[in-house]
Please model this.
Amino acid sequence: MTTDSPWANRALQHTRHLAERIGPRGSTTPEEKHAADYVHIQMQKLGLKDVRVQSFRAPRSGWLPIAIAFSAAVWGSFLCWIGYYLTHVRAIGGLIGVGLSLFAAWIFFCEIAFKNNLLRRRLPRGPSFNVIGRVPASGQAKRRIVLLGHIDTHPASRVFKSSRRARFFSIVMGLSFFSSIVGAIMFALGGFELWSWGFVFAGVCSVLQGGGILAAIFADQGEFSPGANVNASGVGTVLALAERLRQWPLPQTEVWTLCAGSHEVGGEGLRAFLDRYRDDLHDAWLIGFEGVGIGDRLIYFTHEGPFRRPIQPAMLDLLQRTAQARPDLMPQPRSTTRRNTVVAPAVWRGLNSVCLSLYDEREGVPYWRSGNDHATHIQAASLAKAHEFAWELLQQIDEEQTG
Model:
C-alpha cells in the first residue's frame, strides 16, 4: 500500500467537497439534500448503473423519543401517588407506575435496537434521501455487496465534547434505562402491598430518569458539525471504491453503493433502504465506512451499540481471513462501542454487516461529534488504508463464489 494512492486522493476530493463546499449537513436539512445531489451527480459521472434517489421522511431529532419516554416514567411516579390518594387503592397507583415505567424501557430498547414504535412514528419529520448506485459483475452475479456511508452530520453537543463526557452520558442513559425496569418492579411491589416502601424507591428511580431526560435533551443541542471525518470520509471512500470497481468489476459479485441520509436520527436512511430492498439483500454483505479519514489504526467492530449486538459469525470469519491476507494493514477487532455505527440497523436484522473505522492514539474515532471536524485534518494515508482493506474484502467475498 502506498500513501499516494490515487483512490485515496479521489476519496479526499469528495471529502473536501462535502465538508468545505457544502459544510454541516444535519439530518433532513437543505444541506443534506445538497450533499445527496452531489453524490447523485458523482455516481452518474462514474457510470454506475441504475443510479437513483430514494426519498423518505425521517425524524428531525434523534434523542427526542428517549426524552419523551423517560418523561413518561417520571410522570408515572407523580400519577401513582395521585391515583393512590384519590382512590386509596394502592393497586391503581401501582398499575399506573408499572405501565409508564415499562413504556419508557420499551421505547428506549426500540430506539437502540432500531425497531419501529408508535412514539417514533408520531414525531415531527422532514424529507431525507438515500443515493443508490450499482456496479454489475463482469460475469454471472452470484452475490451482492453493499458499500455504505452516511451523508448527514451530527450536532456538536457539549455532552460529547470529550471522551469522559461521552462515557458519563452513556452511564446516565444506562442507569435511566435500568431504573425504569427497577421502578416498574418497585411500583408492582408497592401496588400489591408486598413492600410498603415500594412507591418511595420507585420515586428515587424517577430521579435517575430525570437525568436521562436532561442528557437526551442536551445531546440534540449544538451546531451541526462540518463532518469531514464523520462522515464525509466514509462517503468519499464509497465513491472511490465505486470508481475503481467500474474499471475492474468483480467477476461474480454485484456491488451496490449506498450513501444514506438521516443516519444520525436513528439510522433512518439504512432502515428505509433495507425495508425497500429486503428481498434483494437477504444474503448480501454490507460494508460500512465511518470515520476513516484520520488515524493509523484500522478497526472493525465486532459488536454494535450499548447492548453489544454481535456481528454475524460469517462476517467475523471473513474479516479474520482478510486480515491474514493483508497483515501490512494490521486491522484490529473491537469488541464493543458505546455508539451504533452506520451498519447497526443491518446488524440488528441479522445481515452480514461490518463497519470499518480508524482510531488514533486517543482510542477513538477522531472528532466524533465534534464541531472541529474539518477537512484540514483528513489524512490521505488513512483513507488509503481503509480503501485497500475494503478492496481486499471485496476480493475475498468474490473468490468464495468459486470455492
